[in-house]
Design brief:
Layout: H1 10-24, E1 37-42, H2 54-72, E2 76-78, E3 82-83, H3 88-97, H4 101-118, E4 129-130, H5 134-149, E5 153-163, E6 168-170, E7 175-177, E8 183-185, E9 193-202, H6 208-214, H7 222-232, E10 234-245, E11 250-256, E12 267-270, H8 276-279, H9 287-298, H10 302-307, E13 313-315, E14 320-322, E15 329-330, E16 332-335, E17 346-349, H11 355-363, E18 372-373, E19 390-392, H12 398-401, E20 406-408, H13 409-423, E21 426-432, E22 437-438, E23 451-454, E24 459-461, H14 468-474, H15 499-502, E25 503-505, E26 511-514, H16 522-525, H17 528-531, H18 544-550, E27 555-559, H19 566-579, E28 592-595, E29 597-599, H20 616-623, H21 625-635, E30 641-643, H22 646-662, E31 666-667, H23 674-692, H24 696-712, E32 716-717, H25 718-728, H26 733-743, H27 765-768, E33 773-779, E34 782-789, H28 795-803, H29 806-812, E35 819-823, E36 827-831
Helix pairs in contact: 1-26, 3-4, 20-21, 21-22, 21-24, 22-24, 23-24, 23-25, 25-26
Length: about 850
């Protein structure tokens, strides 16, 4: 901490301060403080063997800076960290190496913890949570039992997604489109297929409407809200009942969002797996042909059936379906393009207004009846899917609409639904695309499901959640050792291999078997933010008073890949816990921002195979944490897609060194030049606003401007220097501490005197006031725009801002700037 030190030695300075911060946990949050609270959260990482990488560093730096600024402005800030440590990677590694996943996970957590600490993040290290910790797992299982007691967790046999490569079932949210008409797993991008298996499900559909309503209460980006709305997929339409005639007394339920097209329904299609097909066996005269088609369909996955360009099917001869509005008989088919796992597994086919129905009707020469026109004069090309047109009032609709020739689609929907309700063949219905959450996994490394299977087929919880003594005695249910962790392709979990663990008894001594499927990794991450408020509580998932004080999370930073996975799941868990009286708010997060992507220097996604991976530890070792933090900010907006450029990192390292050198200009009792004083107050004003608005990239630009101008000054006053050191501290955490301790002459470390616990600098509005002038921007002598400039603007800053003007960019497109002239506060001239 001496002014005689010639250069900034990050290898000496950074570890020294970091060790003291961690030892004294100077970023500790205080429960129930009189200060106003701010809960700043970043999605916790999955700790892999590779350790912290540059993507993590990018994700956490901006929230860390924001948290530090809030702390210095008087808030009680909770900025925690933890480990989402269950999941497939550790288990797959265990299968490959024979090392228990608990061992590899513990080592990975040690690596991550070391990396987070060396990077200087301002984390409250007393609140770390780990989803694999039995003390944490206890309350994950307790929440599951709350779902079970409320009837929202159940075992069902239904078509689910199976991934053979991962040897486990997947939820709908974990399955992605592959861009080629197929489906792949979200993790690993492996092919998936439909299978019919018994699985635990959480009935998230019961909360579909609450999840939609809650989106109006939070400050999420519109694209996040839209993604959640689209995934939930609320639609309003009609549930129709088609009666089957021809020796069978049956009905078929069909849901449609387009009841206005019902006159165009010319046939009915069932999925080959529909149970009604077997019920009709005695009435269908060609059942042997039908059954043969069904057998052939079984060998094809849902993906193949949906992607097939050629539609196939078989008519169920000997029966017909009665049209719910007109009463006309309609032929009934089974066809591979209708899937039993979607909707009711049956559709009314309207070939004039659905492309797949149109293809099928064309192939089998079935009637195609148009009911919707583009407008009252134009029928449009078939199939016409648009609902923006008008409905032709044909004879069958005259009782509803009189002598009208056309009515709007909305009017047709209302009138037709009313008519169906009067006939008893249909009703208005709201449905959701959202499916219940397939919650069990056929893997080892996950939370055991705390349910017992009794010999009579009934189920029993290992503990009643309202009985603390049972919870204390029987939770957590921990993982046993197993001979090997390899899952099987028949859906059997590795836990089933430990027969001693599986076989057990109830408290009354009745024989029972433990559930051998485990929870998905989403279980622990659906409530971790609650545990941060009270991480060592062994009597409850968190103290109600702590939850009331800290919730909701004020700002939540995460990845765009979790918009319809973790974000949806955790909102569901939270709303359920709110209804159970466990948490005090109906939404967990007030605000959300998704982080961007850091590309390699070649502008492509970082990948070992491409050789463009930026090594975090190498950059920290070479340039230091402060330079890297500054560069990550300087790269661009937090949610942007940004390309790595080591030249920018070198520039930020020079900035750190330049600021370190400025300390030699600080003189006690000296009166600095007015231009520097005014610039300082403007810098405090701008940086304060930029940090509040998370514009950290422009914050670093302000530091560059001030450092450049201060270098020209004769001296820097003590007051200005004290303020500037506090100003840079949230970004340049190590340099800020080094300069602050030196500035105040502290010879011994006192955590209360850390720069990070000092007050944020203030500014004088009069001194910060800018003398703004509007000057014209000419291109080859013609006025093409205007720009605001101040006394502090240099030719370089004016050039940068002028070239960013949209109208200027338009005239410069494809052109080369040969000359740039700035006549101070008078004119800007660009020659191309």
């Amino acid at each position: 901490m001496s002014k005689d030190q010639k250069s900034y030695d990050h290898k000496n300075i950074e570890p020294r301060w970091n060790a003291l911060w961690v030892r004294d946990n100077i970023y500790k949050a205080h429960d129930l403080s009189d200060k106003p609270k701010k809960y700043i959260l970043v999605e916790f990482p999955y700790p892999s063997g590779a350790g912290l990488h540059m993507g993590h560093f990018m994700r956490y730096t901006l929230p860390d800076i924001y948290s530090r600024k809030l702390r210095m402005t008087g808030f009680n800030v909770l900025f925690p960290m933890g480990w989402d440590a269950f999941g497939l990677p550790a288990e797959n590694y265990a299968i490959k190496t024979g090392v228990h996943p608990a061992v590899t996970t513990e080592k990975a957590i040690e690596n991550y913890t070391r990396s987070f600490k060396s990077a200087g993040f301002g984390i409250d290290w007393d609140r770390v949570v780990n989803t694999t910790d039995p003390a944490y797992m206890k309350w994950t299982q307790w929440i599951f039992l709350k779902f079970w007691e409320a009837g929202l967790a159940e075992i069902r046999e239904e078509p689910i997604w199976w991934c053979e490569a991962l040897r486990t079932v997947l939820s709908n949210e974990e399955v992605l489109d592959d861009g080629k008409g197929g489906k792949i797993s979200e993790r690993g991008e492996h092919p998936v297929e439909r299978r019919k298996l018994k699985q635990w499900v959480l009935r998230i559909t019961e909360y579909a409407e609450k999840l939609l309503e809650g989106l109006e209460m939070v400050d999420f980006p519109e694209y996040v809200r839209a993604a959640q709305r689209n995934w939930i997929g609320k639609s309003e339409g009609a549930q129709l009942t088609f009666s089957i005639e021809g020796g069978a007394e049956s009905t078929v339920e069909v849901y449609t969002t387009r009841p206005d097209t019902i006159i165009g329904a010319t046939f009915l299609v069932l999925a080959p797996e529909h149970p009604l097909v077997d019920e009709l066996k005695g009435a269908v005269t060609n059942f042997e042909e039908v059954d043969s088609y069904r057998e052939a369909t079984k060998s094809r996955s849902d993906i193949e059936r949906q992607a097939s360009k050629t539609k196939t099917g078989v008519q169920l001869q000997g029966i017909s379906a009665r049209h719910p509005l007109t009463g006309d008989p309609l032929p009934v088919f089974i066809a591979d393009y209708v899937l039993y796992g979607y909707g009711t597994g049956a559709i009314m086919a309207v070939p004039a207004h659905d492309e797949r129905d149109f293809e099928f009707a064309t192939l089998y020469k079935l009637p195609i009846v148009q009911t919707v026109w583009e407008n009252e004069e134009t029928k449009g090309e078939l199939p016409l899917p648009s609902s923006e047109g008008v409905v032709e009032v044909v004879d069958a609709l005259r009782p509803l609409f009189g002598n009208e020739k056309f009515v709007s689609c909305d009017a047709a929907k209302r009138g037709i639904i009313s008519a169906l309700e009067q006939k008893g063949t249909g009703e208005r219905r709201v449905v959701y695309r959202l499916r219940d959450w397939v919650f069990s996994r056929q893997r080892y490394w996950g939370e055991p499901i705390p349910i017992l299977h009794l010999e009579d087929g009934t189920l029993m919880a290992v503990a009643r959640t309202d009985r603390p003594s049972e919870v204390e005695l029987h939770l957590p249910l921990t993982l046993p050792e197993v001979p090997d962790y390899s899952p099987s392709s028949d859906g059997t979990s590795p836990l089933a291999k430990n027969s001693d663990w599986v076989s057990t008894t109830t408290p009354e001594g009745r024989p029972a078997k433990r559930e051998t499927n485990t929870m998905p990794n989403w279980a622990g991450s659906s409530w971790y933010y609650l545990r941060y408020t009270d991480p060592r509580n062994d009597k409850a998932l968190a103290d109600p008073e702590n939850l009331k004080y800290w919730l909701p999370v004020d700002r939540y930073f995460g990845g765009s890949e979790h918009t319809t996975l973790h974000l949806l799941y955790s909102r569901f868990w939270h709303k359920f816990l709110y209804d159970q009286g466990v948490v005090p708010t109906s939404e967990p997060y007030s605000w959300r921002m998704n982080g961007g992507i850091l590309l390699g220097a070649d502008g492509q996604k970082q990948s070992k195979s491409k050789g463009n991976v930026v090594d975090l530890n190498e950059m920290l070792d070479r340039y230091g944490g402060d330079a890297l933090r500054s560069y990550i900010c300087f790269l661009g907006p937090y949610d942007g897609t940004l390309a790595w450029n080591e030249g920018g990192l070198k520039a930020c390292r020079k900035l750190v060194e330049s600021i370190y050198e400025l300390r030699k200009k600080v003189k006690e009792g000296v009166e600095e030049e007015l231009f520097l004083t005014r610039l300082y107050h403007r810098t405090v004003q701008r940086v304060s606003s930029m940090m509040d608005n998370l514009k950290m990239n422009t914050v670093v630009s302000e530091f560059m401007v001030f450092a450049g101008e201060a270098k020209k000054a004769q001296a820097i006053s003590m007051e200005t220097w004290q303020g500037f050191v506090r100003l840079i501290a949230p970004v340049m955490v190590f340099l800020g501490e080094e300069l602050w301790q030196e500035l105040n002459g502290y010879s011994e470390w006192d955590p209360k005197r850390s720069v990070h616990l000092q007050e944020w600098p203030s500014f004088d509005p009069e001194l910060a006031k800018e003398d703004v002038t509007i000057v014209g921007v000419q291109i080859n002598g013609k006025l093409r725009g205007e720009l605001e400039v101040t006394d502090d603007d240099t030719t370089d800053t004016v050039r940068d801002r002028a070239l960013e003007l949209p109208n200027v960019q338009k005239w410069l497109e494809g052109k080369e700037v040969k000359k740039f002239i700035y006549v101070t506060k008078k004119i800007i001239s660009i020659v191309i």
